[in-house]
Structures are given as C-alpha cells and as structure tokens.
Amino acid sequence: MLARSPIAVLVLLLLLPWQALAQAIEYSRPVETAPQADTIGGGYKTPEVQRPLPRDYWLQVFDVVLLAAAMGVSAWLVLKRRSRRWLMGLAIFSLAYFGFYREGCVCPVGSIQNVTVALTDPRYSIPIVVVATFFLPLFVAMFFGRAFCGGVCALGAMQEMVVLKPVKVPRRIDRALGLLKYVYLLLAILFALKPAIARDFVICRFDPFVGFFRGTGAPHMLMIGAVFLVGGMFIGRPYCRYLCPYGALLNWCTRLARRGVSITPHRELDCGLCNDACPYGAIEKMRAVRKDCLYCARCYASCPNEGERARARESLVTVGGGAK
Questions:
Q1: What does pTM read for this prediction?
Q2: Distance from C-alpha of 199 to C-alpha of 221, rounded to nearest angstrom
Q3: H helical segments located in the chain
C-alpha cells in the first residue's frame, strides 16, 4: 500500500535514487527482430519501431555528460557572469541539440514516469543513463537553483525564444495556475503506477512540443503546441510555469539551494527595473524568489549595477576617462 501512495512515491523520487540505480541496466531495443523488408518482399518497408532509434551506449553516456556540462555552463553564466546574451546562445544550442537533433529524447521531464515505475515495480528496469538524466537537474537545483530551466531544457528554450510582449499575470492567478503542475505530476505518477497492461506515460504522450522536434505528431497535439507558443508571446513560458511536472520537483529542490539568482546582492538599488524585466513573476519585493526563478537572466540584463548593461556603462566611463 505504501508503494501505491503518490506522496510516498514523490518522496522516493527525491530521497532514494539508489533504488532506481539498482534497477538500471544497459538497454538496447533489438530493432532487428522486427519484420525486415527483404524477408516480407512486395515493396514492404520496415516501420521505425522506436523513435528516435537506439544509439550506441557511449553516445547515450555522451548525452548525459553534455547535459551535465550544459547545466554547469548555465549556472556559471547566470551566477558568475550574469550574462543573458551568452545564456541565450546556450539556449539556442540546447534547443538545436537536445530538441531537434536528439528529438526531445534526452528529457528529464518524461523520465519521471520511468523512474516512478522502476522504484515501485521490481520487474521493470531502466537504463542507467535515464536515471542520471532524471536526477542530475534535481541535484544541481539543490545547490544552484534551476540551472536546467535557464539554458538547457529544450522545452523552456523554445518558449523563451517567442517571448515578445509579456504581460504581468496577477499574483493570485499566477499562484493558482501554478498548482496545476502538481496536479499533473500526481496524475502522471498514478497512471505510471497502474498495472503494466493499463500503464500510461501521459507526460510523453501529451508533450506539446515533441511533435515539433520530431517533425511528426498528431494534429491535435501540434495544435496544442502552437497554442502554447502563441500564448507564450504574451505570457512568459506558460507550460514551464503552470504545467511542467518536472518543474514541480525542481521547485522543491531549489528551496534547499544555498546559491541562486540574487539581485545586486552587494549594492542594492531597489529601482524596480528587475521586477519590470521579469516576465515570470519570480521577483517579489525587489528580491528573486528562487523556487520560481527560471534562470533567464533578464533581471541582470536590465540592472544598472549588474550584468551586461552595467559592464557596458563601465566600459563607456573607462573609455571616456581615458580620452581625457
């Protein structure tokens, strides 16, 4: 009964990663066992039985290493360099590689359900690279905040690219809508905990953007993804803020972080420019709310004391002083 409790499963997801590691195996689906065209004849073409097709194990490990490196770069660019410009460069790379090239397959979001089943069903095994993909962003969040969301997550990067004229969502409505991601997380876990014959991985099946990454998808899902992108022009990252189930886990982990986005920590101006620049409702009383901060570095880009705007001003002062 304990293993069937959603709350117990959530605790296991964060506190007992070694259970999933014990279930992890090196896995490769034997696609060659599918009917082959030369065997069937008659112009038959063997369909792709897995999308994307399996890769060599060293390439899967490379993806995990690249994921970890990208999060390290994201944390450095935001916390040390305070550079939105370079962070956007990282986001474009992540969108191109993790999104379109890897077709959304290196995905901590969808791995929630795989890890849930592995923790509760001794007959279910998952690759160790999936375990690493799931836990790495959570581990980073516990120390540095949501670095994964900033310039690494392909879903977030796609939405970040379309933000044009974001409007401020009233705080009460924003918080109410933010509860939806917890409901979605619980539902996803409950569907994953069903018996194998009835099990459903709803996060992957209803991912609004994977159809764009793979160039295929049900028309209604492509339409939903388009609605999110059009809405994202005016409401910053609606999927990330209100529906992403992995964002719920990152929210909890970030509460433990000793470091994270902080606004002019050594010389506060309280001018309010950062609050005006943040489209995600992550600044309250002129201070960053780390659990809600999506690591976009817009606050630094707008700040006269920190980030690129401040460095540009200092460069002008230095050049002007040198001219004298």
A1: 0.81
A2: 21
A3: 6-15, 17-23, 37-40, 57-75, 84-94, 111-120, 128-144, 147-151, 154-162, 171-178, 180-192, 202-205, 210-214, 219-232, 238-242, 245-254, 273-277, 298-302, 307-323
Beta-carbon-side half-sphere exposure of residue 96 (alpha carbons within 13 Å): 6
- C-alpha to C-alpha distance for 92 and 260, rounded to whole angstroms: 22
**Is the pLDDT at 3 greater than 50, yes or no?**
no
Cα separation, 29 vs 47, in Å, equals: 14
In a domain, 127, yes or no: yes
| Residue 45 one-letter amino acid | K
Q: Which domain holds residue 205?
A: 6-26+53-312
**Model confidence pLDDT, tens digit, residues 56-85:** 889 999 999 999 999 999 999 999 999 999
- Range with the poorest average pLDDT among 32-41, 69-78, 164-173, 200-209: 32-41
CA distance 199 to 209: 22
What would the pLDDT profile of 224-238 be if each residue is shown by its tens digit?
999 999 999 999 999
Q: How confident is the model at residue 315 (pLDDT cuts 50, 70, 90)?
A: low
Mean pLDDT across 248-257: 94
Residue 146, in any domain of the structure:
yes
Count of domains in the chain?
Answer: 1
Residue 42 covered by a domain: no
Q: How far is CA 18 from CA 6, 100, 140, 198, 251, in A?
A: 19, 31, 17, 27, 22
Query: First-to-last CA distance in the chain?
Result: 78
Q: Is 244 exposed, middle or buried (0-12, 13-18, 19+ CB in 10 A)?
A: buried
User: Residues 263, 303: contact at Cβ < 8 Å?
Assistant: yes
Length reported for the chain = 324
Per-residue pLDDT band at 316 (split at 50, 70, 90): low
Has residue 41 been placed in a domain? no
CA–CA gap between residue 264 and residue 117 (Å, rounded): 44
Whether 247 has a pLDDT exceeding 90, the answer reads yes
What values do phi and psi take at 200, rounded to 5?
-140, 125
What sign results for the dihedral spanned by CA atoms 72, 74, 80, 85? Answer: positive
Cα four-point dihedral sign 109, 148, 300, 87: negative
